[in-house]
Amino acid sequence: MNKKLTIETLSFVLLIVAFPVISHGTDNDTKGVWVLGVVMMIVAGLLPIVTRFMDHSADKPRDMGMELDERAS
User: Fold this and answer.
1) Buried b (16+ CB within 10 A) or exposed e, 22-55
2) What is the mean pLDDT of residues 47-59?
C-alpha cells in the first residue's frame, strides 16, 4: 500500500505544481513552459489510473469495521 500512496502523493504534487507552471507559461508567452505544465497535468491525471491496475496481491489486509475502530467515541 505504501507504493500506491507514494504514487498518488506524487500525482497530487504534480497537479499542484502544474497549475502555476501553466499560468507562468501563458503569462510570459513561453510555449515550452506552458507545454511542460500541461504534460505535468496529464501525467498527474494518469498516475492514479496506473495505481488502479497495479498488483495488490502482496498488500496485507487491514482490519475494518465498527468493532475495530480505535478512535475515541
Assistant:
1) beebeeeeeeebbebbeebbeebeebeeebeeee
2) 84
